[in-house]
Amino acid sequence: MPSRPDAADWPYRHGVTETANARKIAFATFVRRALDDARAMRAWSGTEVSRRTGVSRQTINRWVRGDWASDPEAERVVAFCEGLGLDPAAAFVALGWDRAAGPRADPTPPPMDPDVEALLRRLVDPNVSDAEKFHIRETIRYLAYRPTLPAVVRNRGKQAG
């Protein structure tokens, strides 16, 4: 394997370091995978991702293309990740912002409800029809995003009358 020249000796950098390009590619890959997962698992469009994360479609598209001159704003990266249920630390690693911390051990996820596990198995089962998967996703979406009543209102129905 040929050795790479030291970055200081690299004659073709023209103000752009190899590290900056690698960070752009790594972050673009992270964002692209997050979008692909949102489309596949939640059937979200780019507009829906933008709405749920609070990050404009234009910004997300620039991230996917690696078309940014200065680093993305940390607040937007966090909003994007949280809107998609992702750990922002993974995005920070892709951006090269978390070098001092070193690799982290993945925390043990909390135990999953058996009913939720059964639904997830059905969503990835190739023998389950697309119509059935669509129905499962729509039901989950309804339950996940329906407004919750204040505790006072919920408890009214439980009072003996």
UniProtKB/TrEMBL annotation:
SMART domains: HTH_XRE (SM00530). One of its GO terms (molecular function) is DNA binding. It comes from the Bacteria. Residues 35-91 form the HTH cro/C1-type domain. InterPro entries: Cro/C1-type_HTH, Lambda_DNA-bd_dom_sf. This is Helix-turn-helix. It comes from Micromonospora sediminicola.
